[in-house]
Write a structure and sequence with these properties.
The protein is α/β, with parallel strands linked by helices and about 260 residues long. Helices cover about 40% and strands about 15% of the residues. The structure holds pyridoxal-5'-phosphate.
């Protein structure tokens, strides 16, 4: 029994202090990875991933200086965006979107990192035009080839990017991927390298010229991602602790669709 509305096992009794300490450690590791790669840390944006973190705890995260939150489910994100409407925070959706959820996303999100079909591009653009606004988008690429992962196949990315000028409310700013979940770091790095090479190829095309960003790397693999060129790292667990899964089993760093069986 607790008097707080959040999980004290996960966030501690002083979530602000927990988050500040985790962020300090994380920024230290990001800086060190940049140093190893000869990169400037200002080139790497930290996108905190806040799925399963209650709005009450996110107030502490905002107070700690975080001003953009990433979520994989539109409905969960929308509820928190409403609860935190008084704060100057922006929202990024990083998970697969169904066309029937497009109307929710355009109400509050300023970035969408999981564009993986023309159908969704078309639906987003129609809705954004009606609202008279733009949206930053990343094309999600399935660099591991695992059937459990969303994203276009690497060989299909050029075709999708070439069509994006048809949707003037979408601003294509980069590519996004989830690497294979594996202890073999070479296989993980191969996913990151593939995304970077794909971006170089696409950037040389007229429709791909704006693809400046590579969103890759999560709590378990962000250092390798930075060494391979990431400009956005999406970090949940390392800031907010381990997420509980539906059946109460804790899988560090994982979310259900890639949990080992
Ligand atoms: C949950 C999630 C993350 C963050 O994962 P952690 O391992 O907790 O850092 C990153 N990207 C996407 C798309 C996610 O769904």
């Amino acid at each position: 029994m607790t008097r707080t509305g959040f999980d004290t096992d996960r966030f501690g009794t002083d979530p602000g202090a927990t988050i500040r300490a985790n962020l300090a450690e994380l920024r230290h590791r990001i800086t060190a990875a940049c140093a190893r790669a000869g990169r400037d840390p200002v080139e790497v944006r930290l996108l905190p991933i806040t799925k399963t973190v209650p709005a009450e705890v996110l107030r502490h995260a905002a107070a700690a200086g975080l001003d953009m939150f990433g979520e994989n489910k539109v409905q969960e994100a929308m509820g928190k965006a409403e609860a935190l409407a008084d704060l100057p925070v922006r929202w990024s959706i990083v998970g697969h979107l169904q066309t029937n959820k497009v109307k929710h996303l355009t109400r509050f999100a300023s970035e969408f990192q999981a564009l993986d079909s023309l159908r969704v591009a078309e639906a987003l653009d129609a809705r954004l035009r009606a609202e008279g606004r733009m949206l930053d988008v990343f094309v999600q690429v399935n660099t591991s080839g695992e059937p459990s992962k969303y994203g276009v196949a690497p060989e299909e990315a050029a075709g999708l990017v070439a069509r994006l000028p048809d949707f003037p409310s979408l601003r294509p700013v980069g590519l996004m991927t989830l690497a294979i979940f594996s202890a073999e770091t070479e296989r993980v790095r191969a996913c990151f390298r593939l995304l970077r090479e794909l971006r170089e190829t696409l950037r040389a095309t007229p429709a791909g010229a704006g693809l400046a960003h590579l969103s890759m790397g999560m709590s378990g693999d962000f250092e390798a991602a930075i060494e391979e060129g990431a400009t956005v790292v999406r970090i949940g667990t390392a800031i907010f602790g381990t997420r509980p899964t539906k059946d109460g089993i804790y899988w560090p760093g994982l979310f259900p669709e890639v949990a080992p069986t």
